[in-house]
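Quick question, first post here. What does this chain look like in 3D?
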Amino acid sequence: MEFPLIDDQRALAEVCARLADSPWVALDTEFTRERTFYARLGLLQLATADFIACVDPLRVDLAPLLERLYDPRLLKVLHAGRQDLEVFHDLRGAVPRPVFDTQIAAALLGHSDQIGYGALVEAIVGVRLPKAHTRTDWEARPLSAEQLRYAHDDVWYLRDVYRALAERLEQRGRTAWLREECEALVDPALYRADPAEAYRRLPGHALPPAAQPVLRALADWRERTARTENRPRGWIVTDAALLEIARNAPATIEALARLPVNAGTVRRYGADILAIVQEARRHPPERIWPAPVPPSAREQELVRQLLARVKAVAEAHEISPTLLATRRSVVQLMRERSGPLACGWRRELIGAELLALIDAAALYGERTGNST
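> Answer (accepted):
Ran it through. Tokens below.
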């Protein structure tokens, strides 16, 4: 079988025309980002019920195809689509919608919530896919027949997986559950990261209050610099180095160089880093990262009981327990009465019951003079 590559505008126009007649498209991307902040798209694969195409984004203008893919009447089928959607967000500043994520759909039907594409294809279609080319440089040209076959398989079988899962979800009355999960997946807030919020990805809670505003400012600066230079964050300065800089607040290049910071970072960004530190130190000490509040003995016991109930309900409904609820979401419900378990299908299936158990435990604590 041949696997032609769409690498001219005339062929791409034919693909776009055929997409106009389909209600859904199976979609996958191959990209690299080891040396850049933004992903570099190397190949785009798509398939409908009656055709398949691998599109070369290095040879064609993708604008006509993106117009089709961003049509809200066209359902986009992906597997574990978060990274693919990030690629599209980098291309166009928004993600296409609506989507059907087969990894999420599978978890709603009893598979692991992290099931890989190959394992799902084997489970649904009965075909074992080769694992070669998972680390291919998809920007290198020409692409071999083997590489194109690998890329082809990523959407060839996705069609059958989608149709089987969609049918099973409908039979079990869970189509709305999947729709709710996929709406969360295309939430613009997931992809519109504010550099001022970059500090949240760092473990700053162990720093003293005087150092925390410094780390927040450094994280903001690094995020903006990485985006401007289109380089990975760690190539600007590593997480570990940011923490050491914030903790020690160096005032000179010599003091900065004595810290475990890459010499190249000191040479290239030393003056910027010192200026950021100096400015941030003018702010009063502040605990930006809340200190973790360890659960009490009664809270630990209550969480254990709630998680046991989650497991039982998940098994009874044949869905992934970790998709239904995590320890973190259970603790959030217990302490704040909010989070994933407080709304949507999770609240209907288990959240309301867990809240009743939480309230009963609180009432018991009041009667015995204890508190959670």
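The chain has three domains: 5-190, 195-281, 297-368.
The domain at 195-281 is CATH 1.10.150.80 (DNA polymerase; domain 1).
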